[in-house]
Amino acid sequence: TVLQGIILLPLRATCIAFLALPAWLVASIATFRHHGKGSVPLKGWRRRMIQTALSSLTRTLFFIMGFQVKVKGKIASLLEAPIFVAAPHSSFFDAIISALTGMPSIVSRAENLSTPVFGTILSSLQPVSVSRQDPDSRKNTVTEITKRALSRGQWPQVI
């Protein structure tokens, strides 16, 4: 079993890299020439592309890593629950929740948006950016989440 782990670890890392590149490509296409850059929600084919392709790629990634997740019950729709709470929010498992719920917007550090490859993927989810250098960031974040929650389905769910 230890030998299997040693052999499978580089294989899984390679699979992660090969899935990150198509995810980056999907995110780049979906956000290409989109006016607003986060201030206007993605709609139509752009949003469907993010929901289906990124969700499928993320599920595939976790399956390759050995995770099989079953959803019990019904996932609340956007109109039923514009804000989706995930707790304890402490690890990469949040990505599983995102994939299962249709790739909602997330609340993220502004610095994460400048990360190569993953910054583009994150930007396509239309995150609520939190700047730790801005003293008004907490108030701005609450205002943005409230605006999106009251948009009557214009914005995706916020997790």
TrEMBL record:
UniProt keyword annotation of DNA damage present: no
TM helices/strands, residue ranges: 6-32
Protein name (Swiss-Prot/TrEMBL): PCAT2 acyltransferase
SUPFAM superfamilies named among the record's database cross-references: Glycerol-3-phosphate (1)-acyltransferase (SSF69593)
Main location: membrane
Domain of life the protein comes from: Eukaryota
Domain Phospholipid/glycerol acyltransferase, residue spans: 69-155
Assigned protein family: Belongs to the 1-acyl-sn-glycerol-3-phosphate acyltransferase family.
GO terms, molecular function: 1-acylglycerophosphocholine O-acyltransferase activity; lysophosphatidic acid acyltransferase activity
GO BP terms: lipid metabolic process
One Gene Ontology cellular component annotation held by this UniProt entry: endoplasmic reticulum
Location(s) in or outside the cell: Membrane
Cited InterPro entries: Plipid/glycerol_acylTrfase
Keywords: Acyltransferase, Lipid metabolism, Membrane, Transferase, Transmembrane, Transmembrane helix
Pfam families attached to this UniProt entry: Acyltransferase
Species this chain originates from: Pterocles burchelli
